[in-house]
Amino acid sequence: MAEIKIDKERCKSCMICVSVCPKKLIKVNEGKINHAGNKYVEFVDKDNECLGCALCAQSCPDMAIYEVLK
């Protein structure tokens, strides 16, 4: 199916991607921060549930998310 990649250095934790993911596979990490001091989001898809819809990438204002086809 699909997998997304998140550029943690571009992420500013706006949480838009978290709110648009239909499977709720994007979450704010616990404790890790990027160079700007933001807790960045992480893609958590242990069961290969990602639909490949790319709503997260389309909604990211900082273009920190992109889709990779497996």
Automatic annotation (TrEMBL):
SUPFAM superfamilies documented for this protein: 4Fe-4S ferredoxins
Domain 4Fe-4S ferredoxin-type: 2-31, 40-70
UniProt cross-references to InterPro entries, sorted A to Z: 4Fe4S_Fe-S-bd, 4Fe4S_Fe_S_CS
UniProt keyword list: Iron, Iron-sulfur, Metal-binding
Gene3D superfamilies assigned to the protein according to its UniProt record, in alphabetical order: 3.30.70.20
Matching Pfam families: Fer4_7 (PF12838)
Metal-binding among keywords: yes
One Gene Ontology term of the molecular function aspect: metal ion binding
Classification via PANTHER family: FERREDOXIN SUBUNIT OF PYRUVATE:FLAVODOXIN OXIDOREDUCTASE (PTHR43122:SF2), FERREDOXIN SUBUNIT OF PYRUVATE:FLAVODOXIN OXIDOREDUCTASE-RELATED (PTHR43122)
Protein name as it appears in the record: 4Fe-4S binding protein
Organism from which the protein derives: Candidatus Galligastranaerophilus intestinavium
Taxonomic path: Bacteria, Candidatus Galligastranaerophilus
